[in-house]
Amino acid sequence: MQLTYLEAIRQGIWEEMDRDPSVFCLGEDIGIYGGAFKVTDGFIDRFGPERVIDTPIAESAIVGAAFGASLTGMRPVAEFQFMDFIGCAFNQISNMVAKTHYLWGAPAPLVLRGPSGGYVHGGPFHSQNPEMWFVHNPGLKVICPATPYDAKGLIKAAIRDNNPCIFFEHKYLYRRIKGEVPAEDYVVPIGKANIVREGRDLSIITYAAMVHTALEAAGILKNDGIDIEILDLRTVSPLDREAIAQTVKKTNKVIILHEHSRTGGLAGEIAAIINEEAFDDLDGAIVRIAGLDSAIPFSPPQEEHYLPKVEDVVREARRLKAY
Amino acid sequence: MAIKKKNFRNGTKGNRRRNGASQSTRATTGVRAYSIPDMRLEHPDLSVRQAIEKDKDGAEHVRYEVTGNLNAPVPPIRDSKYLDKKECIEIYRYMLLNRRMEVALENLYKQGKVVGGVYFGLGQEACSCASAYALDKDDWFAPMIRNQGSLLVRGFRASDTMMQYMAKADSPTHGRDGTSHFGDIEKRNMVSPISMLGDLIPVLSGVALGARLQGRNIAVMTYIGDGGQSTGVTYEGINFAAVQNLGLALVVESNEWAYSTPSEMQYRCKDLAERAIGYGIPGVIVDGTDACQVYDAARDAVERAHRGEGPTLIEAKMMRMKGHAIHDAAAYVPKPMFDFWKKRDPIARFENYLVKEKKWLTAKENAELISELERVIEAEREIAVNSPMPTPESAEGGVFCEDGCHEIKPKYGMPKVKKGTAGYKQTEAAGHLK
């Protein structure tokens, strides 16, 4: 069936709650209101206020409580109203949750999820992509799906995983894209990238909303005779090193595209992986396309300038192809 | 012990809530009838402030000075409402073990066998041991750095803590962390602390939430200092437990000093137990150097938790009798303050109570108990010293729970859930931002 990205996530969590009594949700305004973006709309009627818990506005308490419940063998799914607010719970995530299995051997099967990303004029505190804060935290799995199919398969995989997973839902995609989602139960494995478009000339390594930007650019570049391959990482931690190396070995030229700020961004890490795994296969310098090194501004012309655009990808791809 | 599941009623309408959860109800009466029971038999009036002092050369220095009645007589131990002779002696034994273990740790440090520093709970043994003693087997707890006695009560060995300090391969974290930073979610129901203060409070509340979803009202105990309670997460955690009516037994250890900062510079209210009023939960003050008072308040909190009546804040007043850690001579503490609290040593007072007042222990039995514990500590020390250091390679692995590493299942049984009649349908509601 055709589902929006939002509905796919919603259905994934619903099915997991239906299937497994140890799954429960907590977060701000997720109960009767159904969440700021309506991901848990109707959940409280089905699963009850005990399993769909409206919390105080207290992100450290939300993460702490989810972690504590996970220690008793529950599988909590905690919502952040916007992923920008995950910073309020940073200590709980970084020092408590992420380190627990390594330090004292306790598994923490919890999911922290919520909307991230720009292109919706949300301003500096409702548009961020804070995934890199957690990529640099060993012990966390960081998931950023781009399609309804992957979003549903990955949220189910995250809920079933025995480790803390942070699930970034791109709010620009929530209701803008639809895709085919099978009726039967399935999961998408965490840590596996996916070639969403095969090509010969140049690889774009990206994820989340930027996959769609890359696809649009690839359509334009096709008219120039440039055949683009697009690798959707799907999970940004752990990274699929093998898939990254493979696409570079195939096309020999690579653009890394992400929405968050350039400095200290994921592109730097991927470039280092390419150096380690496929340096001899490169026929050109690795190109980064990323957000500016500033906060995300509010006003639409400024936000547009800050964020990567289709024309940026087209321009850089032409330049790299010609190199 | 099995706890009978109750059917909780929700507010005024009397609708039964599914899955065993209870909801807190806000007080709606017009009269503010709050009070903070104070179980203490004395109310020390000491206060600390910064003052300028001149040295012999006339140079000015800012120092702390203490005022108040420093010669007040030492109060008696308050008879426990609950503890019998055997239980009192058992708590006394843990307190002695706690102190002897810390003396052994100090010696290990001086012998160069400890990696890093050592933290002490000197003067706080009654608080650590009697509070943890009030928990039932299925309850959970998480210590802070000075609650090494609580670990002994919950069945960890002195050698566990010693090996943690010595970063040994056989330590509970196999060298990966030190001090009381370890846990056990299977047998002893202990959550490992982290160094950041207050974060355990929402975590323990979450443990109680998890258990309640599985049909059990358990008590979850953790500690926070007069310094640590200044953190925002402390507020978030207590408030979460309060609104969710979770069985948190929070022991606020008011021990006068947060590293080098006196409690006067941490908070302005008279007693930290007053904060309970703001959370809408019961608060109580006890003398943290009186094991019987600590136990009684902790047991009341634990029983409230078991009855599903929500959190309790216990403020235990005492004094940290050493520096923050072994490197810190605590020269900033006015000496008369140490002298005042030294007379209120929890072990000396409890010994006097058991041997002289109650005559539950003869002097001979007491001496035998002390020499037995010395032998125990020596044997534990041997175990710790003889454990090897971990291999360098053991730094690797274990970041994630891999397939087959742990089987995850609800500890108290799979939640028995009832589902509503509303089926799945796609949402058509408007969301925040387009």
SSE blueprint and pairings:
The complex is a heterodimer of chains A (323) and B (434).
Chain A: E1 2-4, H1 5-19, E2 23-27, H2 43-47, E3 52-54, H3 59-71, E4 75-79, H4 90-97, H5 100-104, E5 111-116, H6 132-135, E6 141-143, H7 148-160, E7 165-170, E8 178-180, E9 194-197, E10 202-206, H8 209-223, E11 228-232, E12 235-237, H9 241-251, E13 254-261, H10 266-278, E14 287-291, H11 300-306, H12 310-322
Parallel strand pairs in A: 2-3, 2-4, 4-5, 5-7, 6-7, 10-11, 10-13, 13-14
Antiparallel strand pairs in A: 1-8, 6-12, 9-11
Chain B: E1 9-10, E2 15-16, E3 47-54, E4 60-67, H1 85-110, H2 125-133, E5 140-142, H3 148-153, H4 158-165, H5 200-213, E6 220-225, H6 232-244, E7 248-254, E8 257-258, E9 261-262, H7 275-279, E10 283-287, H8 291-306, E11 312-317, H9 335-342, H10 346-357, H11 363-386
Parallel strand pairs in B: 5-6, 6-7, 7-11, 10-11
Antiparallel strand pairs in B: 1-2, 3-4, 8-9
Helix pairs in contact in B: 1-2, 1-10, 1-11, 2-8, 4-11, 5-6
How would you characterize this protein structure?
The complex is a heterodimer of chains A (323) and B (434). With 323 residues, chain A is of the alpha/beta class. Chain A has 2 domains: 2-180, 3-Layer(aba) Sandwich (Rossmann fold), CATH 3.40.50; 194-322, Rossmann fold (3-Layer(aba) Sandwich). In chain A, 38% of the residues lie in helices and 20% in strands. Chain A contains 12 helices and 14 strands. Chain A is globular and about 60 Å long. The N and C termini of chain A lie far apart (44 Å). Chain B has helices at 85-110, 125-133, 148-153, 158-165, 200-213, 232-244, 275-279, 291-306, 335-342, 346-357, 363-386, and strands spanning 9-10, 15-16, 47-54, 60-67, 140-142, 220-225, 248-254, 257-258, 261-262, 283-287, 312-317. Chain B contains 11 helices and 11 strands. In chain B, β1 and β2 form a beta hairpin. The longest helix of chain B is centred in the N-terminal third of the chain and has 26 residues, at 85-110. Classes of the chains: A alpha/beta (323), B alpha/beta (434). At the A-B interface, α1, α2, α3, α4 and α5 of A face α5 and α6 of B.
